[in-house]
Amino acid sequence: MEERMLEHIDYNLNYLTQMFKKVKFKPIESYIAQRIWHRLDRTNVEMVCQQYVRRGEAYALVDLFFPQINYGVEIDEAYHANPEQKRRDELRTYEIIRNTEIKLERIICYDKNKSTENETFYCALEDIHQQVDKVVSEIRQRIEEEEKQSRFQPWTNEDKLKPDFHRAKGVLRVKDNDSFRTTLDICKTFGMDVKSNRRGGKSLNNGYLLWWPKYGHKTWSNELSEDGETITERKNTAPTVSTPEPLLEQRKRITFFKQENAFGVSLYRFVGVFQMSSTDKDVTTYVKVADEYSLAKQK
Predict the structure, then answer these.
(1) By C-alpha distance, which of 117, 112, 113 is closest to 85?
(2) Domain with 102 in it: what CATH number?
(3) pTM of this prediction?
(4) CA dist., res. 266 & res. 50, Å (int)
């Protein structure tokens, strides 16, 4: 059902709604994030909520991040008024900037003049709006500077997820992070308009197999290794005695691993061409044999 819906919804719209949904339990942060986005009014600019960034040996979350200009926004709600929290915030900010060189701006939601260690007062709405306008102005200025230097890269939109884009490109590459929204898009890229029976994969007439494993399947559990070189497939049901095909007869698998990004948007990412390496009852291992696949092989 989810995949059928994705076949008929704009990717950027889905991305943004899922992103704002991510912070729905932080109503003030959600309000400020949405006001920044709407005041900016630039659909070619990427905004990320809750971006992971390195701080020494650990990681931190930046409330809002604009990767094209390396600009972040921290939204300090009431608990940040606590003196001990302020000290931790200063250390955290120092470590983030030292490791990433992010330009980090803060929007203060509490009234510094009225708030005490035991009682916190929020700012008036007008004050928050003024801070938002300042942030939006800085973002626009940094974008304009990047555009003048011809360094600004527009936010990747759904065109790069469509079959026409991949067919025109002519090759799938792991290093290009080639991705698809649905298995139907994968099939169309390979010249097949298959609208049903796409579970697990589809055979090609050139001896290859299209394969789209994913985490958390109810029958099979698939795990892609951290280095991207191995996929381990385990059956979640009771072990059985199986008689698989001889290894030499196993077809190479053009593999698209289904994963959710940080905002809950699922994509099928090309992770390479894999082939069975070993099988032991209900555990099968596949190893990568190629980082690229030429779509010319389909012609």
Answers:
(1) 117
(2) 3.40.1350
(3) 0.55
(4) 17
Confirm whether 53 is domain-assigned.
Answer: yes
- Measured CA to CA in angstroms, residue 212 lies from 45, 143, 274, 277 at distances of 30, 38, 11, 18
Range of the domain at 221: 158-298
Is residue 60 within 8 Å of residue 46, measured between CB atoms?
no
Residue 44: inside a domain, yes or no?
yes
**What is the identity of the amino acid at 25?**
F
Strands, DSSP E only, in 103-262?
103-108, 171-173, 179-180, 201-203, 209-211, 220-224, 230-235, 253-260
Q: Is residue 71 part of a domain?
A: yes
Nearest 10 degrees: CA dihedral of 32, 33, 34, 39? 80
- Do 165 and 223 share a domain, yes or no? yes
How confident is the model at residue 226, as a pLDDT?
77
Q: Are 112 and 228 part of one and the same domain?
A: no
Residue 72 is assigned to a structural domain of this protein = yes
Instruction: Tell whether 170 and 282 lie within a shared domain.
Output: yes
> 174 and 228 in contact (C-beta within 8 Å)?
yes
Q: For 77-213, where are the E strands, in sequence order?
A: 103-108, 171-173, 179-180, 201-203, 209-211
Q: How many residues does the chain have?
A: 299
* Residue that has been written with the tokens 């890229």 in this structure: 189
pLDDT in tens, 152-166: 878 765 677 889 989
Question: Under a CB-based contact definition with an 8 Å cutoff, are residues 215 and 258 in contact?
Answer: yes
Q: What pLDDT, in 10s, does the model give residues 186-220?
A: 999 998 877 666 667 888 888 899 999 877 666 77
In contact, 237 and 243? CB cutoff 8 Å: no
Q: How far, in Å, CA of 40 to CA of 34, rounded? A: 10
Q: Compute the Cα dihedral for 219, 206, 279, 178 and give only its sign.
A: negative
Distance between CA 72 and CA 102 in Å, rounded? 7
